[in-house]
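User:
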Amino acid sequence: MAEQKINPMLKTALELGPVVVFFAAYVWLKDRVFTIGGADYEGFILVTAGFIPLMLISTGLLWKLTGHLSKMQVVTLVLVVVFGGLSVWLNDDRFFKMKPTLIYVLFGGALGFGLLRGESYLQSVMDAALPLTHDGWMILTRRLCGFFFGLAVLNEAIWRTQSTETWVYFKTFGLTAAIFLFFLTQGSVFKKYGTGEDTPET
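Assistant: Predicted structure:
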């Protein structure tokens, strides 16, 4: 089923809104402790508990409005529910902090598996937006595969050695900026191996 077009601002709000709300709620509640059912929960755990249904609602709306969800969106939602749920259930923030690591390992591993088969799985999801030759896709895929594994290692280093507040800032701004900068620095690949908007590689 082809993706239906919706207002770009609405699409962006549905994709990024939950993360923005999570960050704002954490800043508001980070220093508070709540007693529920005889157990003490830090603000981070309560914010995580609220983030799970918010992600479900926003992703559901995105699917309803566009008729399409990418594999990355589906995997991310599943991991948010599973690891966020574990953090809330066990009152342990470590599970939620592991989530980005698993996301990047899974996507890096998927890209790496495709490369071993001589294919670019990245092309199958981005070809319409970035028409490149086969060589261009292979180069970009190799770089993104290594980049994902690098982000996984970095996330592990941050959450295991830094405070929760530092990790939240890193997750909200650092990872987003890193991905943006990665594609920004791939201009030479797009220029050298681009096929032109109307002449995608066959």
